[in-house]
Amino acid sequence: MNKFGYMHGDGYAFTYQIGETPVMSSAASPQSSGSGAASETLSPRRMDRYFVWPCGADNLDFNTCKTLIKGNRLLPSLIEKQIAILFGTGPQLYISTIDKDGKVTRQYVKNEKIQNWLDSWRENGLPDTFETYLNKCIRSYYYSEGIFSKLHLSRAHAAGLRGLAVPIAGLEHVSELRCRMATTKDISRTQDVEDRDFTHIMVGNWEKSSNISEFKVYPRLDYTKPLMKHCAISYSKNPNHGEEIYATNKFFKGIMQWIRGCNATPEYINSFLENSLSARHHVIIPNAWIKQKEEMLQNLCDMNAQLKAQGAKESDMHKVRVGDKTLEIGDTYTEDILSQYVQLEISNLANFLSGRGKNQGKIYTSRSFYNDNGDLESWKIEEIPQKYKEYIEALISYDKRADMVLLSAKGIDSSISNISSDGVISKSGADTYYNYMVYLTQQSIPESVVCADLNYAIRLNFPQEYAQGIRIGFYRPNVQRQEEISPSDRLSNQSEL
């Protein structure tokens, strides 16, 4: 039976304990240091003939990241801004050139052969257009910094008619939530596992199933023989220091607890208000009362056993009524019966304290009795001092600090995100311009990872054009300062019709 507990309902809440033993804080436990995640040891999981490398200790790191970010009020919109900035006005073919001063610039070009192939993905049986594919890749990058892509061979190439069509019909994005690395090689006793050890990708719902029949297994793309398999999956990622198998969101683990706290703050405040501004009372139930009730229940069970032996019906058995509820105790005493009885009494007290009873908690203070030593004992209902203002202000202060941590972790200046530490939109045009231009210089790595598989497909399909330097990327126009624009073209002088 629990010695300590919490009861709430119908807008009222209180804590309780059995006996006078002081309540020890769980925070004092040496096991609550929270350092376990940093030292987790991973090992492969056996599924039929495959050895699957888990994504985190519970194999759900990707899913946990998605859930916590989705439940946060800031991060989804911040990531959407990053997605929009990287995508720009959309994907474009380009050639990098170097001018006489050694400056690398992009020359955006048109190529009918490549563009016709890009525009034919849906006709080739692919689920998405190439623009949608790239959009999904960007999202995977900003949530996990790794991208799984399925390369589909064209029907002609798969049938052996290799001169009639390009080898790759198109690419399909596969969510990292559904993908895990696997191999048929027994690595259960291998201490040093590397990315290249995994030759397959297992795809399925890892949150709900572990049945091998519900998963699909694809060969991982072999760059030495890229066209040998009809359908292979590649994994492009932004490598992290010390992370050799799966890419990880660099900002997430460091601020995961801040995200949890930030997500929980509204719940704390709402619960505080819903339960009449938190638990106002602490109830102490004497051990003598527990002992007395235990003896009472044991005697009733013994009496029921005698009645049963005499052939009495179940309806004639002794029962215990607490408030408007009845407890069936049977003919055999167990500690569970006592626990149920105590919970009914505590629940009944909650009804009184919430205002249903005329005398509220006073009736329980009148439940006095003498213990074995002859001392008078009774239930004690102690009022907990409430500092409503301090509690709410503490939550709000924590919330503001959490916002600052999240914003700084994402590396987006408030002039770009439109969010400052106090939720005020930055109005400085100069701040926005310069911080945006600095942010644009940081897009090379994200773009290279997002476009890696599509550029590799262009290399396989159009080797001559690829040799000429044609690649696909995103066009992001430079923002001009208002003083660099003629007065008639400035935003302040534009109007919508």
Please characterize this protein's 3D structure.
The chain has about 500 residues and is an alpha+beta fold. Helix content is about 35%, strand content about 20%. It contains 15 helices and 19 strands. The protein has a 5-stranded antiparallel beta sheet with strand order 3-4-9-10-11, with no helix packed on it. A hairpin with a 5-residue loop joins strand 16 and strand 17. Helix 7 crosses helix 8. The longest helix has 23 residues, at about 250-275. The termini are far apart. About 25% of the residues are buried.
Q: Ends: how far apart?
A: 73 Å
| Class of secondary structure makeup | alpha+beta
Average pLDDT reading = 81
Q: Which regions are unreliable across 5 or more consecutive residues at pLDDT < 50?
A: 23-39, 356-366
Residues in helices, as a percent range: 25-40%
User: For the report, how would you describe the main beta sheet?
Assistant: 5 strands, antiparallel
Question: Strand portion, in percent?
Answer: 15-25%
Rg: 33 Å
Count of helical segments? 15
Q: Order the strands across the largest sheet as they lie in space.
A: 3-4-9-10-11
Principal-axes geometry comes out as elongated
